[in-house]
Amino acid sequence: MSKENIMAVIQFKLPDIGDFDAVDVIEVLVAEGDTVQVDDSLLTLESDKATMEVPSSHSGVIKSVKVNVGDQVKEGDFVFEIEVTEDAAAEETPAKEEAPATPEVSAPVEKPAVHEQTAPENVGLPVAASVANTPKPINHQPMGALSHASPSVRAFARKLGVDLSQVQGAGPKGRVLQTDVEAFVKATLEGSSTGRGVSSGTGIPPLPVIDFSQFGETEEVELSRIQKISGKHLTGSWLNNPHVTQFDECDITEMDAFRKSMRDQAEKAGVRLTPLVFIMKAVVAGLKEFPNFNASLSPDGEKIIHKKYYNIGIAVDTPNGLVVPVVRDVDQKGLFELSQELMEISARARDGKLSPKDMSGGTFSISSLGGIGGTQFTPIVNAPEVAIMGVSKAKMQPVWNGSEFAPRLVMPFCVSYDHRSIDGAEGVRFTTYVGQRLADIRQLLL
Ligand code: CAO
């Protein structure tokens, strides 16, 4: 019988893994039929505190794999069958016995009976022991600190030149998976938001990717088409324009009284007169006085382009997400005409019937949440415009008139603007001007 033919199948059992009862198998690094050498990594295990590799105690061929990713294993568990030659078994076993580094070679000794039940080539040679090397810790960082990844993912990241500390792990306990590395590379190459491992490509650190199901029940709902489109646009506006938001409030008591006095007339004309059309008129007056708000910056950021037309984008809340249709030439239209147009575009917006033309050509936007509530908010500039007004709900308040408190209807509002083209002083002059227009109905209607 030649040496080569003298084979034995040993049971590879899990050696001492430290102070853990049971740990998770996070990678099985070999498959049936693979040839392994002594010290080749067979498994990656993960405890609460560390990730460790389990090296092979023998050279040989993997006959069978007894564990799967996700299994829990403990010392002494039978994890692989390895077919070894007599030579290998004889040579390696004493080496292990000599090695002081592996005193905890607590791997159980094979019983001949077991060998007899294994592969047919097994000639029943008593293999001394399925001596397993001690697992090598590869990551002693507490979970959540620095990067935490299996050896194969580390190798993958190394190959692509990815710094793992930049990658957020989506795996259990924040472990970085191969898919996280891939998503990171994709996001970096695109230089834009991709959802997972979000990076703008401008040095902005990626957001953490968390498996929320570890904390409780979750459900994934696809964003609407409009949300996906507006999300990209909002991110672009937010990241490209240095925003300032100026808060203000104005007394709309007179304006509201006038609005209510016009109710019958409005009804006859088939329109619903809300504060928004008055606000649009006041804004246009402000834009004429402060042309930097009715403008865009040139692409090189060196010039400001003033627009001599006044097209106001109105943010409309629809079941599918936010859209901003544009009301054109607001300076040339009366209150009823604007109301009519507002009703028409918001109805078309909610029915999903706006065309791209309906949403283009705006020079300034208004986001009115006044019909819903809230005291203030910070709207995002609708680039390439440079400013947007946010309107909140008007409330009756006691206002000191110099001799007594009088009940007045006070409306909070704000303007967010691109600080590259508009200074803070100009920002507050604009809101003051618009507020005064809204407070004085005569000026507003002139
Ligand atoms: N203060 C107090 N009441 C107000 C108000 C304000 N600032 N603005 C509106 N109202 C009142 C209106 O007068 C109306 O009451 P009456 O019927 O008694 O007059 C009621 O609130 C509802 O108004 P409305 O919201 O239906 O109408 P509107 O003209 O004010 O707004 C539109 C139209 C299309 C802008 C609005 O329906 C809408 O979609 N708003 C949400 C916009 C949005 O989502 N913005 C967020 C963008 S950023 O994510």
Structural write-up:
The chain has 446 residues and is an alpha+beta fold. It contains eleven helices and 20 strands. The strands form five sheets. Strands 10, 13, 16, 17, 18, 19 and 20 form a seven-stranded mixed beta sheet that branches. A hairpin with a 2-residue loop joins strand 14 and strand 15. The protein is elongated. The chain starts with 6 loop residues before the first strand and ends with a helix. 34% of the residues are buried. Residues 91-132, 137-146 and 192-200 have low confidence and may be disordered. Residues 274-276, 314-317, 322, 342, 346, 367-371, 379, 391, 393-394, 411 line the site of oxidized coenzyme A (CAO).
What do the pLDDT scores average to?
A: 83
Low-confidence stretches: 91-132, 137-146, 192-200
Largest sheet: 7 strands, mixed
Radius of gyration: 35 Å
Helix content: 25-40%
Number of strands: 20
Strand content: 15-25%
Number of helices: 11
The bound ligands are: oxidized coenzyme A
Q: Label the overall shape.
A: elongated
